[in-house]
Amino acid sequence: MNVKQMLAKFDKNIRLSIDEAESLMDYIMTSATDKEIKIFLTRMNPKEVTAEELAGMAISMKKSMISINPKVKGHLHDCCGTGGGGIVINKQEP
């Protein structure tokens, strides 16, 4: 199944399998154009994402992770957010 067919499933509220969701996210993360990413996000927004779809997309994203080994004492936590919250605490003033 190609990307267009998978995205068309969203319009019909048809669920993706784990493998389909993984393949779709692989494409989004490696080959998609800005326009295709916009279409993906627009079609995902109103849809209720299933556990299988979320798992497939997470599997895909984990393939792009990199490990780091910083030399720090104690624990190191990554506290980044997803953005879009409207609150800016590190804004740079001109």
Characterization of this structure:
- 48% of the residues lie in helices and 0% in strands.
- By secondary structure, it is mainly alpha-helical.
- It has a domain at 3-62: Transferase, Pyrimidine Nucleoside Phosphorylase, Chain A, domain 3, CATH 1.20.970.
- The radius of gyration is 17 Å and the shape is elongated.
- The model has no long low-confidence stretch (mean pLDDT 83).
The chain-level structural class is: mainly alpha
Into which percent range does the helicity of residues fall?
40-55%
Reported for the largest beta sheet, the result is: none
- Give me the strand/helix succession: HHHH
CATH architecture label name of the domain at 3-62: Up-down Bundle
| Shape verdict | elongated
* Mean pLDDT level: 83
The number of helical elements comes to 4
CATH superfamily name of the domain at 3-62? Transferase, Pyrimidine Nucleoside Phosphorylase, Chain C
Compact description:
With 94 residues, the protein is mainly alpha-helical. It has a domain at 3-62: Transferase, Pyrimidine Nucleoside Phosphorylase, Chain A, domain 3 (Up-down Bundle), CATH 1.20.970.
